[in-house]
Amino acid sequence: MAAKVLIVGTTTDYVQWISSISKKKVFFLTDSSLRNTALEPKPDSDDEVCWDLSDSKGAILAVERHLQKFTIRICGITSFDCESMELASLIAIKFNLFFQTPNAIRNSRDKFASKRAWEAAGLNIPQYSLLNSREDAEKFHRKINGICVLKPLSGAGSELVFSCKTSNEVKDSYSKIKDGLISRQNNRLFNSKSILNKLSVLAEEFIEGTEYSCDFIIEKNSAKIIRLTEKIKVNSLPFGIIAGYRLVGKIPEISHNNLVQTVAKAAESIGINKAICMLDFIVRAGEIILIEIAPRPGGDCLPSLLLCASWQNILEMNINLADGKEVEPIDYRKIEPLTALRIFAPKEGLLSGMDVSYLTNNNSIKAINLTANIGRAIRLPPADYDTWILGNYIFTFEGLSCDLAEVYNDFSRNIKVGIR
Hints:
This protein is an alpha+beta fold.
């Protein structure tokens, strides 16, 4: 009987990538709506189960039928997408396998719950509040007497995240988030069954400082950092949208031991005890202030950046951890300090072409990853946060300005994106 790791709910581009590196070691439970519209080739019939993943009972039955039909045994479970982790947890319970508990998943997905857990553990967090009305939003703004950030309780990245300086901006942003959540009620990313206050909004004090993202392994009450990146922000992008990431080997104000102990406590305090996690945090005046956590590796261009800089494939590492294997990352302080920048569509419409010859002719470029196909319908935030991201490129600083915003603007001007 073949023993395979089940990967729950990932996107079809990840299915293709993972299949190329872990062929026959894994099989996939994929949302049928993603597979029906996918441009990537479908895996062999024994490598994928397709189902409506909002129907958890039906999805579990479909997995059972697949195991019987192809004589497969599940030896581990993992997921790379926040919206599929609750289902992965239910499947793990059904088949008596290890995965994060439903409570740990809820604590990581519910940003209010994670803040409460971190506060109870004595970790540094922004001032925060759960909002159920425009009046609540205005009251919080008056309380902190400064810039505040409004965001959904669930979600990922910068979708429906707003920075507010005035009372009117706070009330307007609150309404935009509420309307956005109502329009996304069929989107599993925003429709977590375990979050009771799905239409509530989280308010946070805006923290002025350098923002970082890291991946780490938490296991046996200790953490090992896999990668540490500084987030790159430019003024031309909407608030919260990251232009890219720069790999770093240290944070000037923070010791290695302090960082390791903090990320371990951040995971353990919300119930995560064995996983590869992604943590976002801000460093201000020598303090680590926690923002968000997920019991999965960081996505977007981060896996490609780590692979290019160190030959570590974090997707494969996550699969191996789910399979019970020992995972030993390279010391993050010794990884080549490469940078990844993202490519965004300049306007809405249909993608008609992309000319990246300026990148291919530049000796500093290490890799170019285009993720959008010709003909894609592009919409811009706040209506859509995914379709306007067209890919990324990875480079060294050889021969380039050290000002990342300047580098981003220069490359962006010379990447020709056709929209009709």
